[in-house]
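S.,

Sequence below, as promised.
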Amino acid sequence: MGTNGSTMLEPLRQGLPPIDPAAVSSSASCALPARYEAVRGARQFTKSTLGQWNLCERFDDVALVVSELVTNALRHALPADTPREREQEAPVRLHLMHWTSRLVCAVRDPSRESPVARESDDFSAESGRGLFLVDSFSDSWGWHPLAGTLHGKVVWALFRLPGGQP
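The prediction came back faster than expected:
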């Protein structure tokens, strides 16, 4: 059926608005350790990747969404007994994909549980507002369980890019 990478992205593509997979001009991914410092690493990876793609002006919004998705994966998708030290295999992966007019951030984690946006009138509450921010700063978002031999899910957020940059 192909490599793990292509298998992993199938559920993601099914959940996105129709995009021709052949139109992906660039993609990048990084493995993140099961530690909260991984959020900083994810932001740095996002900054350097968007710089390579000449999308620096989108960094603030994209980095905020990436931070929330990675934080949610670390906080909610990993069992409490997951070692928070160095591991052989990083349980969370960040994927960035750039089409001509769209950018997608996808975070893979080992849990099949649906991400839940907590209803809260208290916008100062630290916990529970992550998906509200993802919804506010991205054009659309969703999630899908992984297919095949991969366990877990992918939570993605889509950003439309003005002017169809190459």
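Confidence is low (pLDDT under 50) at residues 1-13, 120-127.

Coffee later?
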